[in-house]
Write a structure and sequence with these properties.
Elements (H helix, E strand, L loop, with lengths): L1 E11 L2 E10 L2 E6 L8 E4 L4 E4 L1 E6 L1 E2 L2 E2 L5 H13 L2 E6 L6 H17 L5 E2 L2 E3 L22 H11 L3 E6 L6 H10 L3 E4 L6 H10 L3 E2 L15 H8 L4 E5 L7 H10 L5 E4 L11 E5 L2 E6 L2 E4 L11 H12 L3 H8 L1 H6 L17 E4 L5 E6 L2 E5 L2
Parallel strand pairs: 1-4, 6-9, 9-10, 11-12, 12-13, 13-14, 14-15, 15-16
Antiparallel strand pairs: 1-2, 2-3, 5-20, 7-8, 17-18, 18-19, 20-21, 21-22
Family: Belongs to the metallo-dependent hydrolases superfamily. NagA family.
EC number: 3.5.1.25
GO biological process, one term: N-acetylglucosamine catabolic process
Length: 383
Amino acid sequence: MSYTIKSDQIYFNHKLQPGVLAVDGASIKNVISDDASVSGELIDLTGYRVLPGLIDTHMHGGNGFDTMDCKEESIDGMCDYLASVGVTTFYPTTVTSSLERTKNAVKTVADCKDRGVKGAKIGGIFLEGPYINKKMKGAHPEEFIVDINLEHLKEVLEAARGNVRTIAIAPEKQGAIEAIEYLTKQGVTVAIGHSDATYEETQAAIKAGARACIHIYNAMRPLHHREPGILGAALTTDGFAAEMICDGIHVNPRSMEIVTRCKHPEDVILITDCMCAGGMPDGKYYLGELITIVNNGVARTEEGALAGSTLKLINGVKNAVQLVGVPFETAILYATENPARQLGILSKTGSLEKGKAADIIAIDDNYNVVFTMIDGKVIHDKR
C-alpha cells in the first residue's frame, strides 16, 4: 500500500516543517517539501505534529498486562496498547524473579517476536535483574537477587534465543567486570542500575563496555561531593547514556534539568518503566511477584517504594518540554533517535528518513496521539 502523508508540521532534520511523507509498503519512500509527484492514498494530518514513532527501551507492561505474566496474550496486549499511545518499538522488560520464571518470560517474548505481532514492534528484551544490589533493590524482590554467574546468565540468554538486547548490572558485584566484557562481546548492551557503585567502580564498568545507566537518580546513591557515585559518572561521561523517567514523580524537574544541561542531547533517553497499571484505573496490581498499589497514577509497593510508573512515553516528552524546559525538537530526540542509536536500530527506524521503516505518529497540541502507523500499516487513527 502507498500513502502520501501531508502536514504543516513534520519532524524532519530535527525541526518541524511543512511537507509530505511518501510511504511505499513498509518504508518511507521520500520526505519532500511539497506534494508534487507523490501518489497513493492521501492522509492529511495538517494541524497535527507528525513525528517518528516513539521507542520505549524500558517498560514492564501496560493495560493490565506484564512481561512476567509469561503469556503470549499479555505481550500481544502490550503491543496493542503501546501502539495506541504512540510507541512503535519497545523492549519488554523483566523484573527480578526465579530463574525458571525469567526463562519462561524471555522465551515468551522471543516466541512472540518470531511469529510477529500486531501493534508496537518488539525490538528485543531488557533483562532488569537479578544481577543487582540488594541495597538498591527498589521494587525487586530480594529473595531472587543473585550473584553474577556466567552459567546462570547464559541459561537466560539461551532461553531468549538471542533476543536480549540490554541487561542491568550492578558493577560492584563480584564477577561484574567479567560479565560486562562477555556481554559486550555478545552484542548485548550493559546498563548500570539498582547499584551502590562508586564513581571508580562505575568508570571501571564503562571501560569494560557498559554504555548507560538506568533510570538516573533512582536506585543509586545520591551525589556526594566526596563520592560522586554512578550519578557523578553519568553526568560527566560523554557517550554514556542516561535513562530518565520524566513523570515528575521519580525525579524532581530541576534534577532532570541538571541531566539535560550536563549531558549531550544524544546521551539522554526517556523511558517509562511502566508497569501493568499503565492505562488502567487506580487499584491493586502486580509487578512480577510484588503487590503494588496504584493511587493517583503512582505505583508503590506495600512498603511504600516506587514500583515503576504508569507513564505514557509521549507524556514523558510533554513533561520534558513543560516541566523541565527542554525544546520540543530535543525532547523528541530523547524518545526516538537516541534510543534507536543506543540499541543499534537507527539505520532502520527512529527518524523520518528515506528508506527507514514507516513508523509514524501524529499528536495534537495537547500531546494526545491521534494517529499511529507501523511498518506502513495504519494501526491507530483517532482523528
